[in-house]
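Table 4 source record.
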Amino acid sequence: QVHRLRSVDNLFVVVQEFKDYQFKENKEDALKDLEDLVKKLPWTDPLKVWELNNSLKKKKTKRKKHNLQSTTSKEKLSGDGEEEGTDQKDTGKQEDCAQNTAGEEAASGQDIEKIQEVASQNDEEEEDNEQSDAKDELQAGSGSETKAGDGATSEGEAKVLKFRVTCNRAGDKHCFTSNEAARDFGGAVQEHFQWKADMTNFDVEVLLNIHNNEVVVGIALTEESLHRRNITHFGPTTLRSTLAYGMLRLCDPQPTDIIVDPMCGTGAIPIEGATEWPSCYHIAGDNNPQAVKRAANNIGSLLKKSEKQESSTSSGIPLDIIQWDICNLPLRTGSVDIIVTDMPFGKRIGSKKKNWDLYPSCLMEMGRICTPGTGRAVLLTQDKKCFVKALSRMGHIWRKSQTVWVNVGGLHAAVYLLKRT
């Protein structure tokens, strides 16, 4: 169930978190403390969750060979699953651990706002301070290859597990780099478990998230970010599927709603919409023929996937794509329930200067096609100044009901929920 959450980029189980970790002033001492920490951490339960996660993953790939072996394993599953949940809950206020928060929020089905912030906070890990180089190597020596201990082996195999440590560090008060922290912490993990360090073909990824004085140690449960679903053909500004899902959730689609993305790019929003809200009808369009082609390819590969899954009875997906001009849409006045789109930021596509003309005419045309009274729009942009100015002129058509701040690839952007007057 946790893997089915749609607004979460990454999942991991928390080994332990420290809300106010006191780092030593001196680099050697600070790193020595991190090394010593490894022996004191409660690894057993998180490793059980990791093991369970792996066993479920293997089952999935073996085409659901057989149901869980027995009721006992089912009990174990629910037990560990809860544990994972609580572990996740613990990290509520941690930015680097945004993933888990998203897990919790989505599970409880509340606060889309937080979910969105969270889905995007993961981007911060890629962009912020030194976090990008954090993903680089831990250069722990190759070490001795003894049997993996500490309950980390599954079904008593004598296989030596391979591991790597990834450190995400944010904050300017640390006297060490993320690489140094990963290297020394990794060395201690290696000694403790007698695992073998491997940067590329690892079994276990240990995460060390350091955000100012907060430290969270975790074990990754996802190999690659969950936002890569559904999209096979990427454009210069393809939106993450996780963020697209959050935007759609924000406008609360109801069955039979007509949902339009007038600037769809590679189609991340309508594709996410058609897969998650199949009882709505989705229309995607863009003025760029290249973008329309990419989106059509993405829809094509999605169709192939759904045909495989549902055999020959599949009736396709409720989604059409068209090339059009955003300021002159071929749609009847008042015929659309919801508009969800990622507006041009004026960075990689278009320009800030063009946005001053584009935004007001977009809002005008969107207002025309949207149903008065019940229609709503969810718009994402990083050009906030221009958008707010355009919106202030459109008070007779649109009323802003909510703003959600998100991080899109390191850019501070905003999602606006508008209601049609």
